[in-house]
Amino acid sequence: MISGRLASGQHQSGMAIVLAMLVLALAAIAASGFVFRAAMEWRKFENASSLGQARWVLRAAEKWAGAVLRDDARQSSVDHRGELWARELPAVDSEGYALSGRVEDMDGRFNLNNLIREGVTDPAQLALFRRLLGALDVPEALAEDIADWLDADNRVSGSDNAETALYAAQSPILAPANRPLASPDELIRVRGMNRALLDRLRPYIAVLPGFNGINVNTASAETLAALVDGLTLEQAYTLAARRDRVYFRDIEDFRQALPPGLSPLAGMGLTTSRYFLVLARARHDRVNVGSRALLSRDTNGTTALIWRASL
Ligand SMILES: [Ca+2]
Q: Which of 5, 88, 213, 214 ranks highest by number of CB atoms within 10 Å?
């Protein structure tokens, strides 16, 4: 059944359907724009219309992603990089409208809210996060600082760590969050964090509701090295390259591909995903708008919008 699992060469008909959907959507927009322009000459209204229409295109991209993800759930319970949802949305440029977009699997990243369970730092998750920071050449001590920021107490967890007293010594006064994160942007307030470090971390971290595992079919090599204690970064790169040719059917399949004696952190390895980030950008005339939306998908394939923000 290896041929059935090859990542390339699939979904040709799926792509044709997507393109047809987009062409129809864009044709409808173009027609409404024509009617509007015929009725209104004022530039400011035309601008408002362009913005409104561009936002409409963003919502259409979001709906497209939701439909593709629901359809994907009907095919199988495995999620990997060779699937339709993982393809960049074909660039559409028609009648002065341009749309680009893609879907990113958030289950391929480390969920920062895993660091705290029932108000207390989870040592296994903290160790995993430290390994990830190490693989990314980011100071590993930052893991404790972030956990301190999130946990429910005001105790300092490491010898060189900081809680309220240290944060209060700063100006302006910054209190630790002591609650789950809502956005990775909040991390900029953690001691030791700066813009460059945060940008380095962004592609590897997620902020998801509750506890979440890591999909070994979509995780980066660095994340795989963090998930499997003892796996070198070099071994992780080899494993990820092989995985991108033939994905893992289940976590046992992944385990068998590991060097002898190694295994993923218990309860953390997945081959199916629940959270997806939809990134879209639409342009029309001088209007250029983007959005990101976090979608969840349950085991029945039903999708729901968790949040949406401009990009
Ligand atoms: Ca899938």
A: 214
Distance CA 152, CA 76 (A): 39
Question: What spacing in Å lies between the alpha carbon of 242 and ligand 1's midpoint?
Answer: 18
Compute the distance from residue 268 Cα to the ligand 1 centre, in Å. 18
Per-residue CA distances from 269 to 170, 212, 227, 262 (Å): 39, 10, 8, 13
Q: How far is the CA of 34 from the centre of ligand 1 (A)?
A: 39
The 10s digit of each residue's pLDDT in 187-219 is: 999 989 999 999 999 999 999 998 999 999 999
> What is the tens place of the pLDDT at every residue in 69-127?
998 999 999 999 999 899 887 677 766 777 888 999 999 999 999 999 888 899 999 99
- Cα(88) to ligand 1 centroid in Å equals 16
Q: State in Å: Cα 177 to ligand 1 middle.
A: 35
Intervals of CATH 1.10.40.60 along the chain:
110-270
Distance 200 CA to ligand 1 centre (A): 28
Averaged confidence pLDDT in the chain: 81
Higher-confidence residue of 248 and 24: namely: 248
Q: Which CATH number does the domain 2-104+273-310 belong to among 1.10.10.60, 1.10.150.20, 3.30.1300.30, 3.100.10.20?
A: 3.30.1300.30
At the top level of CATH, which class does the domain 110-270 belong to? mainly alpha
